[in-house]
Fold this protein.
Amino acid sequence: MSTAAQRPPRLLLTLLGDYWWQRTEPLPSAAIVALLAEFGVSDSAARAALSRLTRNGLLVTSKSGRRTYARLSARAAAVLDDGARRIFSFGAASPPWDGMWSLVAFSIPEENRAARDALRKQLRWRGFAPLYDGLWVSPRDHAAEAIGYLKDLDITTGTAFRAASVPADGDIPARAWDLDRLRSRYQGFIAFAGQLREEAAAGQVPPADALIARTRVMDEWRAFPGLDPDLPAELLPEGWPRAAARELFIGCYDLLGPLAALRVRQIITRYSPELADRAAYHSSELKLSAAPDRLAADG
């Protein structure tokens, strides 16, 4: 079962982004609840997810008679499109390294712990890692972004700059990043996705299982952009598994698409047959390259 099942709001956005992409027609809330039930989400948890996403401006709800309907807001559509481009582009290509490092040096007192924690979180998201507690490093040109983080957090005891070398002994990537753990995570994904692709290619995955498996593949792959600093090839160990993992992700996502979309249409048919045929899957290539029209602004 997808780990996304433990987070119904996120799961719901994933499903709408995968099978109701660029659609403006609202879906019956009962169909959405039934769709989440495929992943073991209870009715009460599903309706709580609908309410939460509506309060946060990510869903727009309406009523027709006694039935409630929901659709993605323009804001949610934009968030999903931006996220899709990041997810599907990750690992596709790595620009050559210019041999320069971005460094961020800071000293933040304990009483300003919240700002320190926020800075560390932003640096990790951008691919930095600590050489020492107050010295973070990235092989990419992210010094300007780091300066912006310092400014936004009102941290005056820090600086960011570019340098051709860093003050550390030994193998910098292995020292700053836990590459062994990351390799193990990739290998686990490869084992899971490899078996799934073989079963799908052999016609051994029914529609209901395809929907769950495709969502799990997406859920597990999209964690990697936050875990993998996307180091240049020159700094990675031999046989780095990212490319193989990405190939399996793309293969599973595309191969399972028709069957998963069929299951979604079967579920929607129970509540709104006239809308069912509008549910569709979209290939990884389309997700990456399309410049989608934004939904009309919500009134």
Q: What stands out?
A: Confidence is low (pLDDT under 50) at residues 1-5, 291-299. DSSP finds 13 helices and seven strands in the chain. The first strand starts at residue 27 and ends at 28.
